[in-house]
Structures are given as C-alpha cells and as structure tokens.
Amino acid sequence: MQNKPFLTLDDVKKIAAGAEAEAKANNWAVTISVVDDGGHLLWLQRLDGAAPISAHIAPGKARTAALGRRETKIYEDMINNGRFSFLSAPELDALLEGGVPVVVDGHYVGAVGVSGVKSSEDVQIAKAGIAALGL
User: Fold this and answer.
1) Could you give the C-alpha distances from 86 to 65, 114, 115, 122, in angstroms and in order?
2) Which one of 19, 37, 75, 120 is least enclosed by Cβ atoms within 10 Å?
C-alpha cells in the first residue's frame, strides 16, 4: 500500500490567503476555489465585486484540473484547435483556462480554480495560492 499527501484545512487556508493576496494586490475581483484530488469543494471565496457567475465557474475549473490532473488551459486549447468532441467529456464542465492542479511530491492532491478576470490572470492568482504552500 502506498501513502500520499493530502490537503489539510490549514493548507487550504494558506492557498486561499495567497490567492486572495495576489488578487487584492492587483485589484482583481474574483472567486477562488480549492478542491481535493476527487474534485470535492474545500473552499469557495467570492471577493467583493466578483460577478455572481464566477462562483460557479471557479469550482468547475478547479474540479476539472483535479480530475484531469492538468491545467485547464490544455483543454481550452484542445477545443480551440478543433477537437470539439472533447466538449462531451464526462465530469469536466469548465474547460476554460484558470484551473491549476496542486502537486506535492509527484502526487496530485487537489486543484485551485479562479474566475473573474482574464484567464491568464486567473492562473496567476491560482499559482500564487499554490506557491503560498511553500512547496
């Protein structure tokens, strides 16, 4: 039997704080979500001024990144390059850039999804949150 790390509540709070700090430093109104490796929601935070729909998109991005074990930009690029059939992939409902997996010692332990600004800025916020873990 193998052992693997997992996200604790303290880890999730660090990710959320790091992501929030990045968003606020840039005056970006976003929703930040963190999920475990099964795509189950552990954290949802909608900053003041974030569009209501972002509270649905951010968790979808996080879930897709966790289940697919890759950044959601890969899926968006696939579809934009003509692989439209991928839109029918089960359980992947936010095939937009802005979801980033959390990897610890080669193990995928969850993901961060951000929605509310440009996709590249969503990624910037997600990666700042992950960096707050100090991995």
Assistant:
1) 15, 22, 21, 22
2) 120
Tell me the sheet residues that pair with 36: 110
* 130-134, Cβ contacts within 8 angstroms, sequence gap of 24 or more: 130/15, 130/18, 130/100, 130/102, 131/18, 132/14, 132/15, 132/17, 132/18, 132/19, 132/21, 133/11, 133/14, 133/15, 133/18, 133/102, 133/104
What residue spans of the chain are helical by DSSP H?
9-25, 54-68, 73-80, 119-131
Q: Give pLDDT tens digits for 58-115.
A: 999 999 999 999 999 999 999 999 998 988 888 888 899 999 999 999 999 999 999 9
Looking at residues 29-51, what average pLDDT do you find?
98
Tokens of 81: 């390059």
Q: Which amino acid is at 100?
A: V
Residues 6+ apart with CB under 8 A from 83: none
Beta carbons within 8 Å of 29's beta carbon, 6+ residues apart: 23, 47, 48, 49, 50, 51, 116, 117
